[in-house]
Amino acid sequence: RLDGLACNAGLVSMGKGPEYTKDGLEMTIGVSYFGHFLLTELLLDTLRASAPSRMAIVSSVVHAGSDKNRPNVNLDDLNYKRRDFHNFAAYAEAKVATVLYARELAERLDGTGVTAFSLHPGWARSNFGSGGSLPIRIAMAVMRPLSRLVSDSNEESAQTTLHCLLSDTAANHSGAYFSQSSVLYRDKQCRQGGWPMETPNPNAKNMETARRLVDLSYDVVGLSTPTKPLRT
User: Fold this and answer.
1) Fewer CB in a 10 Å sphere around the end CB: N or C, the chain?
2) If we measure between CA atoms, which residue out of 172, 206, 161, 167 comes closest to residue 60?
3) pLDDT digits (tens, 9 = 90+) for 45-55
């Protein structure tokens, strides 16, 4: 039985160029999106059998970008084989993918009793970035005392995930994006967050892109064709 699934892993690959997992996936999107996609798809039958059940995937404020630069997924080159690699742009792209995936899941699982959400947990006081290069580790060490003034404890940051998985009201918003308050939003109207909150990034709400991303993801992670959902 599986009542709730929380997909929380994420990283920023800090190399000068793209780094790849042993499966040949660009590291940032491989960990931050494709790993969650594969795990969730393999557990969908169990989630359905356990309904009502829920799935929450951690995105990030960075998926929103700014009014001058809204991140999007590049479906023609998810693995950075034919374009320049920029660390945090790749991270933002992976986080757009998580929002799109939650929306696609909500559409696909409508009526099954399984609900899906994406979320921004806030600026957590975690060890995120501690595995980066020496300059990144130094920068994180310098910023850490200052970040404590505006960041959340791990317990506080977990509240949005717990809300999605446990609250009675969240179940009425399958596919929605939830957010802790955050000073990191470039759009001022988003800084108060919301349970749920409308993302300011139209690319993260494009269902055509979401469906194409999921269909492509089946092939990328090596799931066999019979498990691919039939679309009517």
Assistant:
1) C
2) 161
3) 999 999 999 99
Place of tokens 């590291």: 27
Output the domain CATH number for residue 72: 3.40.50.720
- Domain residues for 148? 4-226
Q: Tell me whether residue 197 is exposed, middle or buried, using C-beta atoms within 10 angstroms of its C-beta: 0 to 12, 13 to 18, 19 or more.
A: buried
DSSP string, 141-174: HHHHHHHTTT-B-HHHHHHHHHHHHH-TTGGGGT
Domain-located, residue 232: no
Q: How far apart are CA 78 and CA 52, in angstroms?
A: 33
Encoding tokens for residue 221?
Answer: 């992670």
The number of folded domains in the chain is 1
3-class SS of residue 197: coil
Kindly state whether residue 231 falls inside one of the protein's structural domains: no
80 part of the active site: no
Please indicate, yes or no, whether the overall pTM of this predicted structure exceeds 0.90.
Answer: no
Region at 73 (left for phi over 0; alpha for psi -120 to 50; beta for the rest): beta
